[in-house]
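Sanity check record (used in CI):
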Amino acid sequence: MAAASSAPFIVSTAFSTNPFGGNPALVVFLDPATVPFKTLHGISLNFNQPMACFVKPFGALEAGQTEIHTDIQFVPVTGKDVGLCGHGSLASAKAILSLPEYKEKGIAAIHFRTVNNRGTITVRVLGEDRLEVELPASPPVPVSSEAKERIADVVNRAFSREVKINSILEGGETFKHVVLIEIDKSENLEGSKIGKSIFGETGYSVNVVTSDSDSTEVFASRMFSNEVPGFEDHVCGSAHCLVVPYWYKKKEIEAGKEVLAKMASERSGWLNINYDTERGKVRLAGEAALLSTGVCYF
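Expected output for Diaminopimelate epimerase-like protein:
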């Protein structure tokens, strides 16, 4: 029997310092280009986290170096090819900054090159536990009348009642798999009991339900998908690629102004958001915390 390979791992949670809050991600330090995808998927299945992030190890910092460039691959439990994961990027940055060789070394930014050529994701360091990830904005576009009718029926069945729906839109370009559903704030998005798996019938793999808020946050959202454990992504960063442009336009929020948003899952998480309309970027800032460390064998 061949000797097992091994790699160090860290599980960290993004957009919260509460170990039972935010959105966890597994971060494994290995070069994903040198390991078969089947093995990466197997590791992801073993840990059963919302996302597994495989980060290529890198050497010691040079004198005066304040930025890190490395490769990353996101592998969910479904084994689907995922090119973008906001919370996984934030969790990976937190994991890197916790390593002795990089901790308290003045790192200002970490740039993750996605191995499937989806571009580079940048995470900036704002403080000891505070990080900011920059993602592409995707202003949502209208769906067909037929799709609206189908999706509205799914929403009503998921909530087990007739829901007041204000808008149904979908992502553009590389976000065609995402549907954005605004329900009235009177529907109590956070407190509603929802049949999460029913959203698998919308025809979209990512279903973002959002509503206005009278609380501290400008809006609240939840993300449902049959491709994540438990059918709900606790705090989905990439959902805000659509949600942020939508609410900034609807509420006439000035571009560049930072506002607070909430992901209203059971674990919940808070995001300070900013919409850079000139560059077409969404910035999400939040806290992160370590949950566990160790070595995985494969």
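The chain has a mean pLDDT of 95. If this sentence no longer matches the regenerated tokens, the check is flagged for review.
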